[in-house]
Design brief:
This protein is mostly helical and 124 residues long. The protein has five helices and three strands; from the N terminus they run ααααβββα. It has a three-stranded antiparallel beta sheet with strand order 1-2-3.
Length: 124
């Protein structure tokens, strides 16, 4: 006897559907944000929250997963999770095989704390 996935796990179905919605949103709007992926991510979170009424914590998680899907197609560069820690991100270049350790504080300094990176939330 077959039991449908929806009957087994409606929460998983909901999360999958909302993640797909975030991915579709990002695909539609990525050309508007060629130089600012953070703004694209923020707009996707806002879209999930305001249009689809997804709770904040879940919208951020699902948009993050969707963003990973969006950027993973065709790009083999990866974060080495096994070698990384809370304070150091280890990136591996697939072409050369070399690894690079980058302090998370440095990432914050250049990407998050920089005044030119702070922008007002987008309106949809």
């Amino acid at each position: 006897m077959k039991i449908s996935l929806k009957a087994q796990n409606p929460e998983r179905e909901y999360r999958t559907t909302m993640q797909s919605a975030a991915l579709c949103f990002m695909q539609r709007h990525q050309a508007e944000h060629l130089d600012n992926d953070q703004l694209l991510f923020t707009r996707a979170v806002t879209y999930l929250q305001t249009t689809l009424e997804v709770p904040v914590y879940l919208a951020e998680t699902l948009a993050g997963l969707a963003y990973g899907e969006l950027r993973s197609s065709g790009d083999q560069r990866r974060l080495d999770l096994a070698s990384s820690s809370e304070s150091v991100a280890v990136l591996t270049d697939p072409v050369s095989g070399h690894s690079f350790a980058i302090p998370v504080a440095l990432i914050f300094l250049h990407l998050i704390d920089a005044p030119e990176q702070r922008q007002t939330p987008p309106t949809i």
